[in-house]
């Protein structure tokens, strides 16, 4: 996934339960690892998709195997840290924020969530 406002790239790795952070160095014309290079999700979570909030401070990671959505918050130093996690239903993101997030377990059921105001919390609709 390409960062919405910079040259950062985030790869989700279902097999290792990690997000991999890199950036495009436009001077060297190379993809380089960021520091830190990875952020671990819970064991067995299985990160599959993510969506950036338009405010640039929040990312919602959809974990396929444990059926959770995890909030990542950008800290003052620009690094992402894990915030809350919740189980809306088994998940796959179908569209980005700020419109509602539709979450589905491969078309078996459907949940709809949306943020409210200036909080990062997702609410079932």
Shape: globular
| Helical percentage | under 10%
Taking the sheet with the most strands, its summary is: 4 strands, antiparallel
Number of helices: 0
Task: Give the tags.
3-stranded antiparallel sheet; 4-stranded antiparallel sheet; mainly beta; 10 strands; 125 residues
Q: How is this structure best described in words?
A:
This protein has 125 residues and is mostly beta strands. Helix content is 0%, strand content 50%. The strands form three sheets. A four-stranded antiparallel β-sheet has the order 4-5-6-7, with no helix packed on it. A hairpin with a 5-residue loop joins strand 4 and strand 5. The chain is globular. It starts with 7 loop residues before the first strand and ends with a strand. The relative contact order is 0.15.
Entry summary:
The chain has 125 residues and is an all-beta fold. Helices cover 0% and strands 50% of the residues.
Topology (elements, then pairings):
Layout: E1 8-13, E2 18-25, E3 30-40, E4 47-52, E5 58-63, E6 68-74, E7 80-86, E8 101-103, E9 111-115, E10 122-124
Antiparallel strand pairs: 1-2, 2-3, 4-5, 5-6, 6-7, 8-9, 9-10
């Amino acid at each position: 996934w390409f960062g919405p406002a910079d040259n950062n790239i985030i790869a989700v790795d279902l097999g290792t339960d990690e997000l991999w952070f890199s950036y495009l160095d436009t001077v060297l014309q190379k993809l380089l690892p960021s520091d830190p290079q990875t952020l671990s999700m819970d064991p067995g979570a299985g990160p599959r998709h993510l969506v950036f909030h338009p405010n640039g401070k929040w990312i919602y990671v959809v974990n396929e195997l444990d059926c959770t959505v995890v909030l990542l918050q950008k800290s003052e130093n620009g690094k992402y840290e894990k915030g809350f996690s919740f189980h809306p239903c088994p998940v796959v993101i179908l569209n980005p924020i700020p419109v509602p997030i539709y979450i589905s377990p491969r078309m078996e059921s459907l949940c709809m969530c949306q943020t409210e105001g200036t909080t990062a919390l997702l609410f079932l609709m």
